[in-house]
Amino acid sequence: MTRPLVDRLAIVGAGLIGSSIARAARENHLAGTIVVADRDPSVCGRVRALGFADDVTQSAREAAEGADIVILCVPVGATEAVAAEVGPALKPGAIISDVGSVKGAVLAALAPHVPAHAFLVPAHPVAGTEFSGPDAGFATLFENRWCIVTPPEGTDPAAVERIRMLWRAMGANVEVMSAEHHDLVLAITSHVPHLIAYNIVGTAAHLEETLTSEVIKFSAGGFRDFTRIAASDPTMWRDVFLTNREAVLEMLGRFTEDLSALQRAIRYGDGDALFDHFTRTRAIRRSIIEQGQETPAPDFGRRAVEKQKHEES
Amino acid sequence: MTRPLVDRLAIVGAGLIGSSIARAARENHLAGTIVVADRDPSVCGRVRALGFADDVTQSAREAAEGADIVILCVPVGATEAVAAEVGPALKPGAIISDVGSVKGAVLAALAPHVPAHAFLVPAHPVAGTEFSGPDAGFATLFENRWCIVTPPEGTDPAAVERIRMLWRAMGANVEVMSAEHHDLVLAITSHVPHLIAYNIVGTAAHLEETLTSEVIKFSAGGFRDFTRIAASDPTMWRDVFLTNREAVLEMLGRFTEDLSALQRAIRYGDGDALFDHFTRTRAIRRSIIEQGQETPAPDFGRRAVEKQKHEES
Ligand SMILES: NC(=O)c1ccc[n+]([C@@H]2O[C@H](COP(=O)([O-])OP(=O)(O)OC[C@H]3O[C@@H](n4cnc5c(N)ncnc54)[C@H](OP(=O)(O)O)[C@@H]3O)[C@@H](O)[C@H]2O)c1
Ligand SMILES: NC(=O)c1ccc[n+]([C@@H]2O[C@H](COP(=O)([O-])OP(=O)(O)OC[C@H]3O[C@@H](n4cnc5c(N)ncnc54)[C@H](OP(=O)(O)O)[C@@H]3O)[C@@H](O)[C@H]2O)c1
Q: Is the ipTM of this complex over 0.90?
């Protein structure tokens, strides 16, 4: 039998991402032992029932003891407290990593708690759904998605390579970049899109009551597309906006400027400007589909899913 | 044999919506004869090959002659010119309808061309995909979707009832309201969502070249959800914004105000305000799913579609 990639893998936080990592590690035989920690006893019970961990504990420190790789899968704002608990338990040569959606703030929160005999290699899998908790995870979540690894300057290349290999073994493509650049790119690919989705759904919710009920009724006209990401976890997203403030405000500024230009074109009836803008945006979707990051099926394949369910019932 | 709902049904414009109506009418035996008109000879050829019409012609006037119901399925901005051609050909008792996404402007464009011996009953099926043309249509497009009918005041109730029955027979739920109210509701459920989707994709396209390529790569973080509606037909959407200006600017104003409040909360680190906002927006999606207007599957069911394709190949 070949040796697994990691002897003891510790995962702190059994939510969507943590439980998906545990499942992927288990299905692909990537770890000798998979230990999962979650502060909530009922979540621990659920993890035991789901059976994707060898050991389950409420104590992050206990999970980290003797682990070769520890991955924190908690909201960005909880990183510092969890790191303070886990750091002292890290054994010589251990790697501590995370999955946080913001990387600059996470680096600052983690670094002081990593002992000199351990390695810090933060990462962010660009994959997820609008659901949370241990039941929402699945082993193939990271397949053909990107995982961005943001090691601080001077990190031991061997430690970086182990984290790369782990993510590749879970089906992800890996890219390495600085935490700062990560935060700028994610501001436009993820954080601002979430903000404006949350915002338009909020605008609809503030309308007079009868109008809001009509918004729900006629949402298939486009609105419903936005409600998916506006149903994401509020704690996670609060933390993202609090910790990636500069980049989000910068990209939001560009968004608002561009929106003013479109608004002006509407006000003054400039059909050519509108037509030109609407033509240029098509190419981006085409590229995303070509790169395997999106389905070409009409309407995200919603119809196919509904039909399938219908035929099964 | 029972008599079909309509003896002669004429559809002008064989795009996504027109071809879907023809297919739905054919599959459900709703018309004795289905005539489809399209100005483009190659589209006419395609319609013949696809076989969902009994007669195909390049002339909208010819299609309308002798028809009991004529449905214009062209961009809102083309309505007036097509109505001028079709109006004089309408037989006594004929109903002229349309499917335009804006109703106030369409009413104004159509009304002068409808002879006194015919009836005008505009309608708007709130259903669609990001694709266009005769190949994109399908018979079930309107199933369990809403169709909004906006008869001008004083319209013969029997004519309104015929249009309602036609849409119901194609699987739609029908609601009647004024053109003005329709335009306000659709501004928030469809027009502003499309505008901000077009806008964020545009903002991403304007970034420095390397950043834009990273946006494409890491689009699974949320951005790709917006690219779907930003891939919709530019002509159709130019016309929507030019003809529903007032309501769009009104709703866009509310959106921008709300966005400023969120931006301020980010700038001043007001986590509670962000958390509250992000919590309230979840209920709206839940209602949309409960009302059967959206799939509860994670990620719009994208994974299920990919998996299905994978297993078939
Ligand atoms: N969701 C996505 O799409 C996505 C994608 C990429 C990266 N991420 C990142 O992944 C991380 C986890 O997100 P998720 O989607 O997996 O969230 P989730 O399903 O809500 O799970 C969050 C986990 O963190 C734990 N936790 C929360 N606050 C804590 C605290 N103060 N101390 C200790 N543990 C705490 C939770 O414990 P309980 O069981 O007690 O609730 C739970 O196990 C976040 O940093 C997020 O930015 C998310
Ligand atoms: N797409 C949606 O999601 C959706 C949903 C509800 C309602 N609608 C409304 O449905 C209508 C049609 O949209 P669609 O999605 O079916 O568009 P489409 O697939 O692009 O088809 C448009 C049709 O209109 C014809 N047309 C365009 N300009 C014309 C002109 N100046 N004179 C005569 N015919 C012209 C086109 O003819 P060619 O064959 O020559 O191009 C084509 O047959 C629009 O009013 C739109 O607002 C669309």
A: yes
Which ligand 1 atom sits nearest the alpha carbon of residue A17? 16
CB contact under 8 A, A238 and B278: yes
Sign of CA dihedral B72, B112, B76, A214: negative
Q: Residues with Cβ < 8 Å from B1, sequence gap 6 or more?
A: none
Cα–Cα dist B77/B75, whole Å? 5
- Half-sphere exposure (Cβ direction) of B300: Cα atoms closer than 13 Å: 25
Report the domain count for chain A: 2
Q: Tell if the CB–CB gap between A249 and B263 is shorter than 8 Å.
A: yes
A172 and A216 belong to one structural domain: no
The CATH number of whichever domain residue A191 belongs to comes to 1.10.3660.10
CB pairs under 8 A between A and B: 354
Instruction: Name, in order, each residue with C-beta under 8 angstroms of A312's C-beta and a sequence gap of 6 or more.
Output: none
Cβ-contact A17, A142 below 8 angstroms: no
CA angle A7, A11, A15 (to 5 degrees): 150
Q: Which ligand is nearest to the CA of B128?
A: 2
Q: Confidence class of residue A309 from pLDDT cuts 50, 70 and 90?
A: low
Confidence band of A244 (pLDDT split at 50, 70, 90) = very high
CA distance A300 to chain B (A): 6
Domain that holds residue A79: 6-177
